[in-house]
Amino acid sequence: MKIQVSTNAYQAQRSWMFKGGDTTTTLKTNITIQEGYNLLQEWAEDSGCNNIILENGDVFDMENEYVVYSYGDKSFSDDGYYYELLPN
Asked: Which of 76, 72, 75, 77 is nearest to 86 (CA)?
């Protein structure tokens, strides 16, 4: 599996992660599904200081009142960036 992050053209030009203004880049490759879930969960929690984990594993942003990371979807959004776990 791999973890991929995508964003809009404006964000891509400003971020070191996106080479040459590409709007999609791969952060991790050749990981297991469980490793991917764990990383996404960790990053989703780190993405805001007011997040709580719900019983089903979703991460909920208390400040903005929405689900930051849905455990079943293998993806989460953080301020203009969209992270997802995909096959290699």
From this structure: 75
Nearest to 30 by CA among 3, 69, 65, 60: 3
Least confident of 6-15, 43-52, 61-70, 74-83: 43-52
pLDDT tens for each residue of 53-71:
999 999 999 988 889 999 9
Please report where in the chains the tokens 């089903």 appear, as a residue.
56
Burial 19-38 (b: 16+ CB within 10 A, else e): eeeeeeeeeeeebeeeebbe
The CB-side HSE value for 5 (13 A sphere, CA atoms) comes to 18
Q: How confident is the model at residue 19 (pLDDT cuts 50, 70, 90)?
A: confident
